[in-house]
Amino acid sequence: MTILLKKKIKSWALTLALGGSLMAGVPALERATAPIELSSIAAAGQMSLSVFDVGQGDSILAQEGDKQILIDGGPDSTVLERLGNTMPAGDREIDLVILTHPHSDHVNGLAQVLSRYKVDKILATDVTAPIVSFRTWRELIAKDKIPVDDPQKVKTEKVGDMEYDVLSAGMQAGIRGSEHDGNSDGLNDSSIVGMLKFGSRRFLLMGDATTVIENKLMSAGDELKADFLKVGHHGSTYSTSEKFIDAVSPAFAATSVGAKNPYGNPAWRVMQLVKNKGIVGYRTDLNGTVTALTDGQSLQVAAERVR
């Protein structure tokens, strides 16, 4: 069976060569000689990860055949269009939905996803927020009796051959948000931070976690090396320290950010850091949806637009 993506993603990309392993040492990288066509994905043996262009917010879909993990839903209904362009025609079921934290630019779209898709399971913290979309989200979960895993207790989720390991989640002891760190309500650093694994390839997905959580992860001695980094907190100045980038050592990085947003994201410092470290960087405001494709060994990354 072959799944046809309704929207082709064509662009140049770098390819992590077949057999190269980030864990074994420096991977072989080569520039693709032709546009990468991510127009079809084998039902078995491959995974795609799409960092959707949803404006100023986050939404990520990991997909292996007809199995999906949706992480956050962005600020509005745009996620529905992105899912319609990416999931198999007629597929109205999502195996796992993860809400990293209940800020509106992550949960608003998920409330609409629950209204239109059958969701088999949810991973979410018990952190709450006084916003309408979050209340709707919880009401729909209760109405449809969707099972909810607590990331403080369930540390690994498996969907097909995709494995999502929880590295951080929930309100962190000793964290007191302030306007200075962009985390005044503490919710950014309550984000579920996860490492998505498929074969030997690793994708570190940071939610809106700031350098506070980055430091905790490094101090805990977690294995942070990854091939692909979804940059934390929309690339704000409060995330992505040089020490953290060195610890992760990604070949690719994607920043989910809205064009001309009022927050000044992404920060110039973060984008220069990505560039200076030799990481292939993408921004959804400039490049559109960013998609990685892997068979567990090789890795290709492409975007809708090249700038």
Verbal overview:
This protein has 307 residues and is of the alpha/beta class. It has one domain: Metallo-beta-lactamase, Chain A, CATH 3.60.15. Helices cover 21% and strands 29% of the residues. The chain has seven helices and 21 strands. The strands form four sheets. The protein has a ten-stranded mixed sheet, covered by helices on one side. Strands 13-14-15-16-17-18-19 form a seven-stranded mixed sheet. It has a two-stranded antiparallel ribbon with strand order 1-6. A hairpin with an 8-residue loop joins strand 7 and strand 8. The longest helix has 13 residues. The chain starts with a strand and ends with a strand. The N terminus is likely disordered.
Descriptive terms for the model:
307 residues; alpha/beta; Metallo-beta-lactamase, Chain A; 10-stranded mixed sheet; 7-stranded mixed sheet; 7 helices; 21 strands; globular; disordered N terminus
Q: TL;DR?
A:
The chain has about 300 residues and is of the alpha/beta class.
Query: Mean of residue pLDDT?
Result: 85
Q: Please report the total strand number as a whole number.
A: 21
Give the H and E element order. EEEEEEEEEHEHEHEEEEEHEHEHEHEE
Q: How many distinct folded domains?
A: 1
Low-confidence regions = 1-36, 173-182
Helix-strand blueprint:
Elements lengths: L1 E3 L5 E2 L2 E3 L12 E3 L4 E2 L2 E3 L4 E5 L8 E5 L2 E5 L6 H9 L6 E7 L4 H13 L1 E7 L7 H13 L3 E2 L6 E4 L2 E7 L24 E6 L2 E5 L5 H9 L8 E3 L11 H7 L3 E4 L12 H9 L3 E4 H4 L2 E5 L4 E5 L4
Parallel strand pairs: 9-10, 10-11, 11-12, 16-17, 17-18, 18-19
Antiparallel strand pairs: 1-6, 2-5, 3-4, 3-21, 7-8, 7-20, 8-9, 13-14, 14-15, 15-16, 20-21
